[in-house]
Structure formats: structure tokens, C-alpha cells
Specification:
Blueprint lengths: L1 H131 L4 E4 L5 E3 L20
Antiparallel strand pairs: 1-2
Length: about 170
């Protein structure tokens, strides 16, 4: 009986230890279940967040693609407009050179005009002197004999008397 008692005690102890292990394992399973549920929730949240991020990434990707296309178009337009601007600047430069050349020709013509006007004024002055100081003929009596307004020249060919007051 002692042996049986020992065996029963041993078995009781074993059952008791087994119950404790089962209880510990059950607690651990419960804890693991709650951890698994928590992980499932976190996983679902991460999946939802990943989808949102993917959608946002796709939107951003489309936006970048559109921006790149607009950038390309803008670059082409800028290149074209830069060429047009260079052509316009070249034309403006040529026109400014032409204007400068025409201004120079105008100044030269103005100087030449002033020089001609001065000569004309000199000729007019000389003409005035000739017209008012030197008498001009008003007609002819005979070939080669001019008649002036003061009646000189009529019989201009006759010789005046000597100047000595010696009239004989």
C-alpha cells in the first residue's frame, strides 16, 4: 500500500504539475491569441495604409509624368522662342545699324547742304555787289557798244580831253 500510496501521490503530483503546465500553456495560448488578433489588426491597418500609399504613389507618379510632359513642351517652346528672340534681336541690330548709317548719311548731307548754302550766299553776295556796284548794260547801240543806265558808253570810243587844263 505504501507503494500504491506512493504511486497515487506520484500520479497526483504529476496530474497537478500537468494541470499547472496546461494552465500555463492555456494562458500562453490566450495571450498568443490576443497577440495574433492584435497582429491581424495591425496587418490589416498596414495593408490599408499600404493601399493608400500605393494610390498616392500612383497619383504622384501620374502628376510627375504630367509635369514632365509639360516641362518637355515648355522646354521646346522656350527653345523655339529663344530662337525667335535671337532672330528678332539680329533684325533689330541690323535695323539699328541701318538707322545709324542713315543718320550718318543725313549728317553728311546736312553738312554738304550747309556748305552749298554758304557758297550760294557767297555767290548771292558777289552777285549783289556786281549788280549794285558795277553798272549793267541796258542795251546796245552798235555791235560791241553797250549802253548803261547813266548813258555812259554812248560814243565810249571817243577820247576825253587831256587833264592839264590846257584847252586850245
Amino acid at each position: 500500500m505504501v507503494l500504491i500510496d506512493k504511486e497515487v501521490l506520484s500520479r497526483d503530483k504529476l496530474v497537478k504539475d500537468s494541470d499547472e503546465i496546461i494552465k500555463e500553456l492555456t494562458d500562453k495560448i490566450e495571450k498568443d491569441k490576443s497577440d495574433v488578433e492584435r497582429f491581424h489588426k495591425e496587418n490589416e491597418n498596414l495593408i490599408i495604409e499600404n493601399r493608400k500609399i500605393s494610390e498616392n504613389f500612383d497619383k504622384l507618379k501620374r502628376s510627375v509624368k504630367d509635369s514632365d510632359e509639360r516641362n518637355g513642351k515648355t522646354h521646346k517652346e522656350n527653345t523655339h522662342l529663344s530662337g525667335v528672340l535671337q532672330e528678332k534681336e539680329k533684325l533689330i541690330s541690323q535695323q539699328l545699324d541701318e538707322i545709324a548709317s542713315l543718320k550718318l548719311q543725313f549728317q553728311e548731307a546736312k553738312i554738304e547742304n550747309e556748305r552749298i548754302n554758304l557758297k550760294l550766299n557767297n555767290y548771292n553776295s558777289a552777285s549783289f555787289v556786281l549788280q549794285h556796284i558795277v553798272p549793267k548794260p541796258i542795251g546796245k547801240i552798235k555791235v560791241g557798244e553797250d549802253v548803261y543806265s547813266d548813258r555812259t558808253g554812248v560814243a565810249y570810243h571817243s577820247v576825253p580831253p587831256p587833264m592839264c587844263n590846257n584847252f586850245t
